[in-house]
Amino acid sequence: MSAFEEMEEDGTIWMNGEYVDWEDATVHVLSHAMHYGTGIFEGVRAYDTEEGTAIFRWEEHLDRFYNSAKPYDMEIDFSREELTEATLEVIRRNDLDSAYVRPLAYYGYDSLGVSPGDCPTDVSVAAWPWGAYLGQEALENGIKVEVSSWRKHASSQIPTNAKTTGLYVNSMLAGEEARRHGAEEAIVLNKEGNVAEGPGENIFLVRDDELYTPGLSESILDGITRDTVITLAEERGYEVHDNVSISRGELHTADELFFSGSAAEVTPIRQVDNIEIGNGGRGPVTEELQTAFFDLVNRRTDDHEEWFTYV
Fold first, then answer.
1. Residues 69 and 218 grouped into a single domain
2. Name one GO biological process term (predicted).
3. Do 95 and 160 reside in the same domain of the chain?
């Protein structure tokens, strides 16, 4: 199932401490988050391994979830242990061998001033089957992308290190613009005109067998898959420059480009703005790191056992 296929509307979702049927997991139309985008979320994958279903880097995702709530003074009234057990149980109840997991916290229904006031913080966890985000073929052949006319907001405007629901309007605009023009995904630039990231992915550039990825000061989300790729690359002897500025023009002259993300995993980029990148397909460095990533998450290696939470 790709990102653009319909989800099956059945199963169980955890909401505010209760397990409810999928069709009953609803919110009030006057919820604060519905009007002002005041929610935070995570996207996490669980993989079907020989040792059972395993959530990848759950603890790091939980860290970011709670940290994302802080700029919005959002109090999450459930402990890490409660959210972990809720997530494991949702996966069990939905009988999922592999899954995409979506923890969500948002200001709910009470009042509709811009200030959330006494609005409650509602919390939910859903999980469903979700295959390659941009399609299985994209993992092998790469995707066509377009640099968007929409710019990424700066951290001086809205906290870019928080995974905030409302901020993804920017991502939606960029992605849909690219798809209208025949591309499969977008790249957004920051306010200085340097490369930031994809709508839901971090980006890596390969040049002379070295890796470059925009630093946190470039208005990017501190991606957990980004960190995974950096670790895997350094373990394989690659030099990684993870705090750089990348110009738009550098994209076109790269040896290789690829996206990373919990949904996108490791997806090669074969073309930017109708300009072929490298050999026009998945480059050798990208292929090596992609293979290492999938070997890791599917537990075909014993490396980094600490990154897995078993259902």
1. no
2. L-valine biosynthetic process
3. no
